[in-house]
UniProtKB/TrEMBL annotation:
<keyword id="KW-1133">Transmembrane helix</keyword>
<dbReference type="Pfam" id="PF18478">
    <property type="entry name" value="PIN_10"/>
</dbReference>
<dbReference type="InterPro" id="IPR041375">
    <property type="entry name" value="VapC45_PIN-like"/>
</dbReference>
<keyword id="KW-0812">Transmembrane</keyword>
<feature type="domain" description="VapC45 PIN like">
    <location>
        <begin position="1"/>
        <end position="76"/>
    </location>
</feature>
<keyword id="KW-0472">Membrane</keyword>
<protein>
    <recommendedName>
        <fullName>VapC45 PIN like domain-containing protein</fullName>
    </recommendedName>
</protein>
<feature type="transmembrane region" description="Helical">
    <location>
        <begin position="85"/>
        <end position="106"/>
    </location>
</feature>
Length: 143
């Protein structure tokens, strides 16, 4: 995981994705602060198969795109547009739901793939349905 990925996300993903070895960049000696143009090559040389990142701008920078292509390892991106506990929860939900599917696709990929995990909406309208049984009692509600 790139260092722009929240470290608590690494803990959450490791707890359920036990068939894979996951490292957060900051956990690796001497890797913190590695420029993206060097990161992909270094990761490939050390045997990593994919990098998980939130850096959507990488794919707009020609030198970084070239570095990703040259390294030949998979790139998995997700967006984290919200901060705080809500942002972390949304990121954990999106990655935990999408990463197993992405890894299964990468396992049989004959070539390097670029994967974009779809996000989850944190808005109350999209995440919650609140019912006041006094105003709109559910079927079989006593009273």
């Amino acid at each position: 995981m790139d260092e722009n990925v929240a470290r608590p996300l690494a803990v959450a993903v490791r707890s359920f994705l036990t068939a894979h070895t996951l490292h957060h960049l900051t956990e690796l000696d001497g890797w913190a602060g590695t420029p993206d143009v060097d990161l992909y090559k270094r990761a490939a040389q050390d045997g990593y198969e994919a990098i998980l990142t939130t850096d959507g701008r990488q794919m707009q920078r020609p030198n970084e795109v070239a570095a990703i292509a040259d390294a030949g390892i998979h790139r998995i991106e997700f967006s984290q547009r919200h901060s705080g506990l809500v942002g972390l929860g949304v990121a954990i939900g999106a990655v935990c739901a999408g990463l197993p599917i992405a890894l299964a696709a990468l396992e049989n990929a004959p070539t390097q793939l670029l994967v974009q995990l779809n996000g989850i909406s944190p808005t109350a309208r999209d995440r919650l349905r609140v019912t006041d049984p006094a105003m709109a009692p559910p079927k079989h509600w006593p009273g």
